[in-house]
Batch of 2 targets.
Target 1
Amino acid sequence: MSGYSSEEDEDLQTIPKKSEVYLGYVDVAFNKTEDEPTVEDTFVGGQPIWLHHGSPPSADLISCKSCTNPMSLIVQAFSPLEDSLYDRIIYVFGCKNDQCNRKKGSVRAIRAVCKDPKKMEEAQNEQDEEIKAQLQDKLKLDNARNFLFDGNKQDSNPFGASTDSSNPFGGSSANPFGVPAAASNPFASSAPAPTKTEEPAKPSFASIAKQSAPAPKPKTKSTITKKLPEYPGYFLYVDQEKFNKKPAQKQPNLKIDDSALDLEDESNSASGSGSGSAGLSAESQAVSASLQDSTFQHFSEVISYNPHQVLRYEINGKPLLATSSDEIAKVVSERLIPRPGFNPSSERRFELQVMPKLIMDFEDEVNVQGGIEWVTIIVYTDKEDFTPELDDNHVGYVEEWCGVQWEEPITTKTRR
Ligand SMILES: [Zn+2]
């Protein structure tokens, strides 16, 4: 419990030069394109797509625990694990009922897997083929390079995987997932486990598994459950987080008083409540919840580099807390995330986080009475990715841990 050291504190409070986080950005709206989302897409809003059209989750899994009504899909993230051959999706659902804001169980995270042995075998074969093809391509290119440039043109890296966007290995920064064959759907390559782009010879298993699993035809979209109430749907595109460019203008999405950032100084961030809220008096907690909350400042600062992010994905990574003064901050900071009940010997790890810009995208399209009041939704999933039960279609669902940081009064005031 006290293992949350100041070292990590620092880690949370500084802007790293490099990030392993993948960010999701809103792209084309469902109603502005002929394309329908498939299981291999990552998207927000709309109706969920199940891994098998005949295998929706049980109704109670996607019902609000507060009002028991069916919830709405917030995010569906196609996120097969690296080194695995099966399909995997994280769903985040939320209740649209105003009265359920801040209620326990009004936002829930569901993990689905599909371990179809046939598909997995196909994935294995395609993976082997892919590796073979990549090796061959690499050899060819090496030879060509050696021949044309006498080996000294680019750099000493034999794979030449520098920043050359024409690199056939897909190892360029333009395509962090190495899924060049994503065909006409640019969003198919969404939110998998990050791959080491500098190692083109060792492609991400996650990306290969993804390529090999054919998406069900849109027509077979699940009609098993009744249509859920929905938010407007948008495809997401995913890119690695970068901190190099910072827009000069005030961020349109996070309506934070600029003076909040000006208040920050060294002593403030050092004494900030990144971890210590548990030991603080009620009074100092109240202070930390104010604009001087260095956690909130850090949250805003990180977002300001990529202000349109609606999703952060970093398996085994760290969530970005919006405040240090609530229960979720305590649970996350002190690593009190509950073990999965369906796999009690395991633990949970951070996987993804929904960011507040999404609320704007949802609210742009519909008049959300009363409004959405979460700031961020943090999802932790079972480290072992265990799924106790698979149905006849090899699909299984479990509920994962989901921590919601709600708007504090101060943010409510500045947001509206
Ligand atoms: Zn509800």
Target 2
Amino acid sequence: MNYDKTDMPAAYDAGRGYSPGVLAYWLDVISQSVPKGSVAEILDLGCGTGRYSNALADYYDATVTAIDPSEKMLAEARRKASPRVRCERASAESLPLHDASMDMVFISMAFHHFDHPDRAAAECCRVLRPDGAVCLRAGTIERIDRYAYLEFFPSSRPLLNRALQSQAFIESTFASAGFRLIRHELISSEVAESWSAYAEKLVYRADSILVQLSDQEFEAGLTAIREYAKTAPPHERVVEPVDFFVFQPRASSFT
Ligand SMILES: C[S@@+](CC[C@H](N)C(=O)[O-])C[C@H]1O[C@@H](n2cnc3c(N)ncnc32)[C@H](O)[C@@H]1O
């Protein structure tokens, strides 16, 4: 999806932003595979508004190259970028980076948007140092049934089926590009601290599936979620499964 043709960039942080606790949780998940002190150069690929860019730079005490083809998403990232984050407009399929220049490639909720995932995976392999790693967060087809908004927006199911990749596709795409799978785990991730907070985040419609729904279906679903929120326990967190993959170049000495 071309994010520049949508209104999502300005709404993304309001609709998809993290609480500090959720961001810290994810940094902990990532560091279980890529420990602190082991990386100096990170590529945040498909960085969007930079939801992770500053946090990765701070946590790893590293330099982050934040790359995205969307000028509007990058404008948001640039506005917030700390001095150790360099934002650059480019596509995953053709990275403006030297061979073996990165210690970690981080990809969050972006791989399914790439036009040519095979070329993107090959570029990841090219720019990574031999002991580097790709850390990838993704929604996959296998998890669609567990998405919180599914039952409230019936048309979202076929759209998700078309948009998302399977776990096997992601694994085989990286295998063909010269990687081996080091870790795959389903991580339960909080999307909102309560159902009413969830509804108020959805209002921003900062989701590539929700923007494709008719306004009528979107409004009806939102009303239904608000009604549901009135009956749900007030502090019931809304959580969704996220597939987390770690790949290493096959030639790597990492075990
Ligand atoms: C859902 S956003 C995720 C942004 C960020 N990684 C995050 O987790 O908040 C998906 C991003 O992928 C970007 N994208 C789409 N096609 C791309 C490509 N070919 N190469 C790199 N990024 C791409 C979009 O512009 C968008 O910013």
